[in-house]
Amino acid sequence: MNPRDTDPPRAEPALETRRDTGGAAPARRQWPTLLAVSAAQLLVVLDGTIVNIALPSAQSALGMSDASRQWAITAYALAFGGLLLIGGRVSGALGHRRTFIIGLAGFAAASALGGAAVNPGTLFGARALQGVFAAVLAPAGLSLLSTTFTEPRERGRAFGVFAAVGASGSALGLVAGGLLTEYVSWRGCLYINVPVALLALLGATRVPPDHPCRGDGPLDVAGALLSAAGFAAMVYAFNEAEPLGWGSPRVLTLLTGSGLLLAAFAAVETRARRPLLPMRMLLHRARCGALISIGLMFVAMFGFYLFMSYYTQTVLGYSPVQAGLTLMINALAALIGSTLIAGTLHGRLTPAALILPGLIAAASGMLILTRLTPHSAHVLPLYLAPALVLTGLGLGCVIPPTAALATADTRRDDIGAASAAYNASQQLGAALGTALLNTIAASATASSLTSARHTTPSSASVHGYTTALTVAFGILLAAACIAAPLTTTRRANRHGSREP
């Protein structure tokens, strides 16, 4: 293969209309887009954690069985993860602004349906619908951001704000979930999406319309079916691995089936006239590095959030609200990292100069927590606060440059697919991290209880948490080693990123 075949295609002239940033009129068009996309990003990220806090109350109110309650989480994850690539292509075909508005309206309606649910089936169906609309909303929003902000300085600020919302949304979801469940109702955790969606819709009305990318050739139906089935099987396998174990026949069957389906998908995409995910996009070195970096970052961070929630509540005795407020340290650090550091330095430094220190900072935060013992004193100031600050800064520094690299210099009709691939990396990383690290923690806890004399449940739990966080530390270091040669770039382009 000619090395030039792996170069990113140049942005098409249709994008040039967004680049007139010399006057006030373009600014009036740009910042409503940022407001709308940030609100939509908050919706998608918030919903990944807020329902977890409300689930015990919802289970009691609706009479869910212990075996079925997981579907309130799994239904959303399967629809979202399985349909993301299709959502990216739909966004390009219908127009990013139109798809964005459809996604917002559908997500709000599905949230209202879930909040009004009177039985488990209605709640599960509403959660699946939320996932469907999130799968078109997320890539459409990132595509709008990428095509609206093209000047390096403004692009850096915009991606910094976008990243701040994404990085802090999970922690905010835990806080909001605890407050709403404790003082309002579990239904409030779903109804809260409606006003946020309306705010985003208000901003979307001021976003300039874009033109659909019709493309050549028929829709890639085979690729759509294979990608949806393959990604859904993978997400479901990760969810099932948590209660059943990675050696379970069901989990192994799902993982094998997922691998075969995705291999068939890749084969179809290389021959399709209008592929759902053009393989040339994954052959570009810097884009591939961005997808790997954010995927592995989410593997480590979602396990980290889970353990912080459990450790603060079961070992330290915090209430759900106190635990959520503790995680706000992480959210504030992510805000600083994404806006004041990554957003300000975008275009002035190579992406690797932000991604690599971000991964190492997050790894350092994990390392601090591996030193915890059941007898550690002054845990909040000596362990939790430094770890939360470092992981937050790291996450805030990684998201903006990886999002910019993943979407920079793509053809206009491929920007939706690039955005979908980026979101898919995040979702798969989050699902894998929660399942993998929770399994490691549970195994280490059980081993500690059976192998050591006079071990209390609390000390065994701490051992399980630190073992899993040691693995998370290793994952982040591996991510830095993989990302270093892939994201180290030299030549500046007009989007403020660098090309190999």
Write the layout of secondary structure elements.
Elements: H1 24-62, H2 71-94, H3 96-115, H4 120-148, H5 152-183, H6 188-191, H7 193-204, H8 221-244, H9 249-271, H10 279-283, H11 285-315, H12 320-345, H13 352-369, H14 379-407, H15 415-451, H16 457-487, E1 491-492, E2 498-499
Helix pairs in contact: 1-2, 1-4, 1-5, 1-7, 2-3, 2-4, 2-8, 2-15, 3-4, 3-7, 4-15, 5-12, 5-14, 8-9, 8-15, 11-12, 11-14, 11-15, 11-16, 12-14, 13-14, 13-16, 14-15, 15-16
Domain Major facilitator superfamily (MFS) profile: 33-495
Membrane topology: Multi-pass membrane protein
Organism: Streptomyces rapamycinicus (strain ATCC 29253 / DSM 41530 / NRRL 5491 / AYB-994)
Characteristic terms for this protein:
500 residues; two-stranded antiparallel ribbon; 2 domains; disordered N terminus; mainly alpha; 16 helices; Growth Hormone, Chain: A; disordered C terminus; single chain; globular
Query: Could you say what the CATH topology of the largest domain is called?
Result: Growth Hormone, Chain: A
The tally of domains stands at 2
Strand tally is 2
CATH architectural type of the largest domain = Up-down Bundle
CATH level 1 class label of the largest domain? Mainly Alpha
Radius of gyration: 22 Å
Number of helices: 16
Shape: globular
CATH superfamily of the largest domain: MFS general substrate transporter like domains
Q: Terminal Cα separation, in Å?
A: 17 Å
Fraction in helix: over 70%
Mean pLDDT across all amino acids? 83
- Give me the secondary-structure category: mainly alpha
